[in-house]
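Recall that a protein's primary structure is simply its ordered list of amino acids. Everything else, from secondary elements to tertiary packing, is in principle encoded there. The following example makes that idea concrete.
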Amino acid sequence: MNLILLGPPGAGKGTQAARIARKFGLAHLSSGDILRAEVRQNSDLGRQAQSYMNAGTLVPDGLILDMMARHMEKPDAARGFLLDGFPRTVAQAEGLDHKVEALGRRIDTAIHMMVADAELEARLTGRRSCPNCNAIFHVASRPPKKEGVCDQCGAALVQRPDDRAEVVRTRLQTYHAQTGPLVAYYRGRGVLADVNGSAAPDQVTAAIEALCGSPA
């Protein structure tokens, strides 16, 4: 089974992707996590991607497509994969179709998580991250026990550059202009399924699991 999670920044794709991948034994391929790992390693890819990520704009199609295709071919994706944060444009989706077909596979379901912009902005601007262990907190919904300090390792929490209010608005504008058309693309291919991303996380998980059926 090969799945895609679609939705704007802050919709909760990462949380749901990890749960669904574990439930169904799929490789969780998060473009954001992979790119941030490259940035931390100061690789050539990381240096190229950093400026795009900080500005809230998209990494060029060719760069991200080749990177994701390599991960889809790894042994841990033999049972299937779940793409989180990719594709983000129709051009990427078309390129993905070619890559998947070359592997003798198909995209089974594109899950569309729907959340209003106002809620997304509140979620993202309040998010705080630990640069040491990657734990995530939120100033309103999941604050750390001690303000500004990671519960897990004690490091100082930071606001990611792409979670600043002005960048969040740019990210949402970019999503609607460039990624939004993916909804129509996958609906036209008959594989789109809408999910209410504003519901409680456990309810969202249950809705996605119902769409996917029982694990093989």
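The mean pLDDT is 90. Strands lie at 3-6, 27-30, 81-84, 109-114, 127-129, 136-138, 192-196.
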